[in-house]
Amino acid sequence: MTAIISKQSVLKRLLKRADSMFEQVSKSLVLWCAVLSIFASVAPAAAQPAPAGNKPDATLGSNPDTVVWGYISARAPPVLRIKSGATVRVDTMSHQGLLTKDDPVTFFSAAGIKPEEVLQDATDIFKRVPRGKGLGVHVLTGPIYVEGATPGDALEVRVLALEFRVPYGVNNTGPGSGVLPDLVAVPTPRIIKTDQQRKVALLPGGIELPLSPFLGVMGVAPPPNLIIVSSGPPGSWGGNLDLRQLTVGATLYLPVFNDGALFYAGDPHGVQADGEVDGGALEQSLTATLQFILHKDAGKSMRGPRAEDAANYYAMGLDLDLNVAMKIAVRETVELLQEKAGLTAAEAYSVASLGVDFRIAEAVDSVQLIYGTIPKKFFKQNPDYWANKQ
Question: Which CATH number fits domain 8-303: 3.40.1190.20, 3.40.50.2000, 2.60.120.580, 3.40.50.300?
Fold first, then answer.
């Protein structure tokens, strides 16, 4: 496993090209829609055990040599190479505090955050990492190259652990943000402190909200013909799913479009509700411990990401139109029930209507995500799940 550094010149050339093609990419946003893969196409998550004590095989920091800002691309040089089965401890950096003219120390000082409590990574990224015009806001660690991965494979990503890097986060809204873009008249970044001992966020009005961390962005490089995509809308490659179920103990499956898969992670969240209605979560830097397992040829029938945890399967529908996303999620749920329980389409449709809850994961990223929660207890037999063995 070797890190590859000194990539800034390559990224600057890539961003220059992205600036010139942004309008073309944005017009092609409809191509970024994705649907759930067929669950049977990937081997069960129990096929390989998690490492004892979540011991990592490699560590990847979030610094100017290991992150990109605002995009996902197959053209960015890998920052780490690993083998299938490897576990990586990955630092991720919130973009909040990096988006204004003020440096992060100045930004966070407004809420009484001391300079020594601001991550040095944040200051270094603010000063040194280029951000593409018209692209997303997210700082992403990666890409990670998985040896042996080729187009048509599937990458299994297990979330073994998530640790808070700082005792505070930001929720930012304002004009044009969220599902009510006219509600808030001025930019309103809110710095929110967290009690790490009690694992709660200290919200206005004395409200305390239990923390439930996850990575808003986990994805692989998109199909090569897209060259570079904004980190904002999710797609068939995963990306900015903002699916809060992807917390410790969850598994995400992604189709592979490029050699090495080229995995990115970022947009760390301390907590978020379904919908993410004001346009943001509690944006809070995290360290994730992830295990990567390659499934050869299993991505050929996949049209997009899927997920599971010890209790449920998650059927996803992604589309620019929330109604279409709902239809996709329901259809994928019906197909899963048919495959797992041997039901007819009519029987599975009935079960979905009676026993499967559908929720909006996010309605704010242009491409919107609806997911169905399918309890594993519906099925007489389920493969042993890795998180139950830890």
Answer: 2.60.120.580
